[in-house]
Amino acid sequence: MHQKNLRAIDLNLLVILDALLTERSVTRAAARLYLTQPATSHALERLRILFHDPLLERRKGGMGLTARAEELQAPLREILEELQRLVQVPDIPLSELKQTVHLAMPDFPAALIVPRLWSALQKTAPGINLVVHNWTDNSLEIARLQKGEISLVLSTLGTVPADIEKVHIGDERYTGAAALDHPISERPSVEEFIAYPHVLVSARGSQSTPFDQQLAALGLQRRAGISVSSFLTVPSIIASSNAIALIPRSMARHWSGTGRLKQFVPPVEAGSFSVDIAWHRRRSNDKAVQLVAELVILAIKENLE
Description:
alpha/beta; D-Maltodextrin-Binding Protein, domain 2; 3 domains; nine-stranded mixed β-sheet; 12 helices
């Protein structure tokens, strides 16, 4: 944009644009910014003239972003956050931080670490509010990091784009779990292992996992008695049935401590998965985000030990 046009831009318009693109609704954007709906609608009209684009379009089921608006969302959020840092008072003590940090992760390990994370924040930085989002899909969560919709994501992330910073926390291994009074032995044979129905975890409702491919290579097959979308459902199922399951070791340790479940060693290597945390590089100097990331890493490492 030509420099002479920059003098005519009201920076407040960019704040309103950010709210409009995030909320995809004039009404919700107005409520978020404590503005009236007519004032927000007027600002949208000015923005449409400024960018020569409708930005928001009415579609079936609500308002949607134009292609131009999609392009604007991430750089706009980055510019606004840079401006915020520019006027922010430097070196605010952690105890005085006032900020909301958005963290996306699967329900496991959220159930194990969020209580500890919240407790640590209350001691270190009680002014930080935490919003925990349910993890959906890595590509979607990375896009949300880039758009600034979330601050951190915890998952098995693999390769990430150049603008995303990732820390590998550790590797979580699978172990066998069954009801406390289940007859399965501590080190079952393959025949004993596949004799019982298994509980599988699949967000897509699959009745087969990479572990089943390992079994198939050995000429073996297990019965997927039930497939659920969440690891958190598994303990209740196996505690009250003859089904068994392969679950993350840290989760098995937690539930074994309740006296409801026992662990066993699978006769076939069950494998492991990487646990990673990531943020957009513009968050690298954000004290609140980095504090939450540090506490998450500590909590995960303690669970993996």
